[in-house]
Amino acid sequence: MSDEHDDLAGLREEIDGVGRTAAKRFDPGAGALTIAIAALAVLISLVLPWTEGRQGFSILFGDAQALPKFFSWAAVLTGVLLPAVTLATRRWTLAWVCALTSFATSIAGVLSIWTTQTTTSHTPGPGPGFGLVVAAIAAVVLLIKWLQIAASRPPLP
Questions:
Q1: Residues linked to residue 54 through DSSP beta bridges, in sequence order
Q2: What pLDDT is attached to residue 11?
Q3: Phi/psi at 50 (nearest 5 deg)?
Q4: Between these two residues, 49 and 127, which has the higher pLDDT value?
Q5: Of 27, 110, 120, 147, which has the fewest CB atoms closer than 10 Å, so is most exposed?
Q6: Contact (CB, 8 A) for 129 and 53
């Protein structure tokens, strides 16, 4: 009888361990495809013009205004690299990190567009290039999708 009780206790412990592990993970479902498409859009935007006809890669690795340069790095890190790690590990904590960093990146993207349109004189600035707009839209899409995934965690029992 004692061996049977030990076996049941061991089985219960194993089941509880599997439950704790599953509670730390998420299933993105169809959202993973949306995230992958947005990450691809960020990568494609780097070959398109961002400001004054300069490509995103030249903004990323060259001399540029501070805000577009920050946004280019943030877009690559939070739009491509961090989602890849998060989708591979499927951890709730990383989903929240992606949501929060996507929020900051989205704000930086919108401000980057705004700063390219304004100058200190009365003439308008050169304006944003198509790549900058695509990257900013991709950052907003990532923000929405990561917030949906992160907020979908069921309450723990």
A1: 51
A2: 64
A3: -105, -60
A4: 49
A5: 120
A6: yes
The pLDDT tens digits for 81-137 are 999 999 999 888 899 999 999 999 999 999 999 988 886 665 677 788 899 999 999
CA-to-CA dists, residue 52 to 56, 60, 94, angstroms: 11, 14, 36
**Which residue type occupies 60?**
L
Half-sphere exposure of 155 (CA within 13 A, CB side): 1
Residue 14 phi/psi, 5-degree rounding, is -65, -45
pLDDT, average across residues 64-71: 86
CA distance 59 to 51: 8
Cβ neighbours of residue 98 closer than 8 Å, sequence gap 6 or more = 78, 82, 83, 86, 142, 146, 150
Predicted TM-score (pTM) of the model is 0.81
Distance of alpha carbon 3 from alpha carbon 13, whole angstroms: 15
Name 51's bridge partners: 54, 128
Element (H, E) at 83: helix 82-89
Q: What pLDDT does 119 receive?
A: 67
